Amino acid sequence: MTTAITGAPRRVNALEVRGLVAGYGRTTVLREVNLTVPAGSVVALLGPNGAGKTTLLRTVSGLLRPSGGTVLVDGEDVTTRTPHARARAGVCLVPEGRGVFPNLTVRENLALAVPRWRKGTDVEPALAAFPVLRERIRQIAGTMSGGQQQMLALARCYLAGPSVILLDEVSMGLAPKVVDEIFEALAGLARSGASLLVVEQYVNRALAMADFACLLNRGSVTYTGPADLLDEAELTRRYLGADLDAEHGTAAGDTEPVPLRP
Ligand code: ATP
User: Fold this and answer.
1) Å from CA of 219 to ligand 1 middle
2) What is the pTM of this model?
């Protein structure tokens, strides 16, 4: 079943990042990054370890202040806003790690996921999207399996009314069968009309579900365009190391900037 996550399709881009510069202390990580997530589309954000993918998600969600550039959500400039205000503007971050309250029940976690400004929002759409959570509604979240906890983290997206969902390696550390379920959940989010920016170690799977891809290398964008125009073999060789299986690889650190069929 597909549960609608957004209202009528929006005409503007869900997310636009222009000339974004950010880093830690005196270290610059993102170097004038431009990236667009058109409304209702899935964008795969790929690149080797340390490329700046998490830094980009943190900067978009307001956890990190950029030193340059702009962040637009639904066409609205949120660059100077707090994380809380950005959440209200429509940014929903599903961070690496599960980000659920382990000592609370599933029901309590879902109740807390409803933002103050959406008070009264029914948790039913989240339960419809993840029936396993309905079965475990009274269970303490921390006693569920890793995959179930990740589903709880994803279920929160259905309650926040987001314009754009930022997903940071949500399949990390899960068993292969559970990874299948997580990708099915992501596909469900995409079918619901959500706009997704997906960071994933499972590169081929991410590309298969994405409309567009953005490759980041040493904080600079080296490709942005349709996901199906990417040559996966070249992508794997350049970004993940020739000797690694792209489905299970971690980046090998070949960070030579290479334009991939722009
Ligand atoms: P990975 O796939 O390994 O998560 P990534 O593309 O998400 O990589 P980031 O985590 O954004 O990369 O890291 C980009 C650079 O910023 C790296 O060189 C990293 O060491 C550095 N970095 C990340 N977090 C911090 C921090 N809190 N303080 C200082 N430097 C950091």
Assistant:
1) 10
2) 0.85
